[in-house]
Design brief:
With 264 residues, the chain is of the alpha+beta class. Helix content is 30%, strand content 33%. The radius of gyration is 22 Å and the shape is globular.
Length: 264
């Protein structure tokens, strides 16, 4: 029993080392100067990390007490996690080609408060990288929040899912080339839908309409993608509508973000 526990402990130590190695190498990609060679570099990094991370398990498998099935499950989980992070990083880097009016600043998530998981995240870029308060923060799937606190080498991002009555975002719902304005005012943890209010009952909003930032109120510039309309409800007095918006960002699982710095 004691020997088994020691082997398991050793396995977790190796796994921790693999995670640290993954983080270091992925961060280095952001400093890689040639966008055209990103795909090649990512494949090399993925292969190197996979081999390095799996070496301890291969070695431990040679000992009879380690289950082959258990090792296979661990390897499968590592491969899946690695592929997901590499794809997320590629998506973020792809933003460079579409954000022509911005100077994108790519950053990595440093930490999240477990008690306020959907309220804030901390990223590894700050004043030294040109980040300032109130800048919009996005992923390849759309808006996720804005910068609220900045230090020299890190920043705090308030997420659009935050439970904060004062954090209102003006949005534009695009219906047949017409912008209908509303206020983003809540997030439903169970459904994963954003809620928007302040819409007159006569407004012709349809399921599937695109939702963007409106640019009103000076919090965000106009045109940042948020999601699509998934559900429409009339209030109990039949005076206004409430719409529910599907974002395509998994707020439980964010690793890399892009801060939008407007070009001067």
């Amino acid at each position: 029993m004691k020997g088994k526990k020691q082997k398991k402990k050793k396995m977790w130590v190796f796994l921790g080392a693999g995670v640290v190695l993954l983080s270091s190498l992925v961060l280095s990609i952001f400093l890689y100067p040639r966008v055209g060679e990103i795909d090649i570099l990512l494949k090399d990094v993925a292969m190197f990390i996979n081999k390095a991370a799996m070496y301890p398990f291969t070695a431990l498998n040679s000992e009879k007490n380690v289950s082959q099935n258990e090792s296979y499950v661990i390897q499968k989980n590592i491969n899946s996690s690695l592929e997901k992070e590499i794809q997320e990083l590629k998506d973020v880097l792809e933003l460079n080609r579409t954000l022509t009016e911005y100077e994108p600043i790519h950053a990595t998530i440093l930490s999240r408060n477990k008690s306020y998981w959907f309220n804030t995240i901390t990223i590894d870029k700050g004043k030294s990288s040109g980040i300032r308060k109130d800048m919009a923060v996005i992923t390849a799937r759309g808006l996720i929040g804005k910068i609220t606190k900045v230090s020299h080498n890190s920043s705090e991002v308030k997420l659009i899912t935050a439970d904060d009555e004062n954090f209102k975002i003006s949005i534009a719902i695009q219906t047949n080339d017409v912008d209908n304005f509303a206020i983003l005012s809540g997030y439903d943890l169970k459904t994963g839908l954003m809620k928007a209010t302040g819409i007159d009952k006569t407004t012709n909003i349809q399921i599937g309409d695109t939702v963007l930032t409106s640019g009103l109120g000076s919090m965000f510039t106009a045109g940042i993608y948020i999601g699509t309309v998934e559900k429409i409800e009339n209030d109990k007095y039949d005076l206004s509508k409430t719409i529910y918006i599907r974002t395509y960002q998994d707020f439980n699982d964010i690793h890399y973000v892009t801060v939008l710095k407007v070009k001067s």
